[in-house]
UniProtKB/TrEMBL annotation:
Belongs to the XseA family. NCBIfam families: xseA. This is Exodeoxyribonuclease 7 large subunit. Bidirectionally degrades single-stranded DNA into large acid-insoluble oligonucleotides, which are then degraded further into small acid-soluble oligonucleotides. The keyword Methyltransferase does not apply. It comes from the Bacteria. Residues 133-444 form the Exonuclease VII large subunit C-terminal domain. It comes from Halopseudomonas sabulinigri. It is found in: Cytoplasm.
Amino acid sequence: MNDDALFKQLGAERDVLSVSQLNARARQLLEDVFPRIWVEGELSNLARPSSGHLYFSLKDDRAQIRCACFRQHAARLKLALKDGLQVRARGRVSLYEGRGDYQLIVDSIEPAGDGALRQAFDALKAKLMAEGLFEQTLKRPLPAHPTRIGVITSASGAAVRDIISVFQRRAPFIELVIVPSAVQGREAAPQLVRALELADRGGFDALIISRGGGSLEDLWPFNEEIVARAVAGCQTPIISAVGHETDVSICDFVADVRAPTPSAAAELLSPDSQALLRQVEQLERRLVQRLRERLARARLQLDSLRQRLRHPGERLSQQAQRLDELELRLQRALAQQLTQQQQRLGHLRTRLQTQHPGRRLGQLREQLQQLDLRLPRAMQQQLKQQRKQLEQAAQTLHLVSPLATLGRGYSILLDDQGTPVRSAATTQPGQRLKARLHDGELNVRVENDAPYTLSLLD
């Protein structure tokens, strides 16, 4: 009887199947219903036979299932499996017909929760990148020759031992200060933030924040936003060395420099003492060579100056000869100057005799006597002319003076501003005026304007 016939007759009375037939139909049924699924649970009973296959169980608090991961899939697993590890396994549900065991044939394994953590990682990375916390312009250069370095990590972890070993080998003169902090678990992120704040105020030349490798869940404190912002807020240059070379954390993006391992971070900050010694020796050789070249040039310059230098006695002789020449020239110049001055003195004496002051004084005395005689006559004549002009001007002024008109019996009316009244139309009844006479003034008032009438006021 074939398998299809057996499936069709399962409902008949007293259908009898062999054990192998039953297991075969159960396996086929399970594989058809569960072609490929994900199962999450705790890994236990891990076995690694020489065949390369992996056998283990996945369990939770109420049940478990046997699992098998064959060699071709086991070789591609990147996760280090161990009992107690919380994982998520992908595979198909099947049945091992030989024993009738229900099992999961696994082709891929990843840490439990890694997918959710990966999404949170990507979301935070995108957020901080949009804020500009990853910009290269914010990265500070590492000090070339640090003397004091702070290390933020677990005081008992492998990372701190690797860092100390590198510094002892390459630069034992650098002072290392361990700022301890948890690097895994719920308390790790707040402790890392406090350690960063403390170290940033510690006067270090640079900081290293580090831990060894692990799963994404183990490294998650270094992907927390509060830790990333604390790293970005540090004023001290900082190197992030979290996990192995393939591990990447948010701290790596925010820090000034990312190191693939803790040892690599130590090498970045620890100048090789042997390399420094070789550099100093090279600089010493260059300095000696430069000094030799400088001395050679100075020696050549000295020889050139020595050849140009003349004996002081020879120079004194030349100066003495030059002094004699100048003395002779001075004597000739003085004699010539004396002759010229004597000639000029004789010329001036002749001119002085022709223009003697006594002769000039006689001429001036005669002019003074003549002027003394002319002055009284000119003054009398000038006074007579000025008096005559004054009399003529007085007569002319008297003719046109208003006082002369007043003397003939006329008067002048003045308003309160002292302005002459020229027309009756400019006055008003009751207006007070002054009448200016030849020998005084009268206060008058306008009675009416038609006819014009004035009345004398007391």
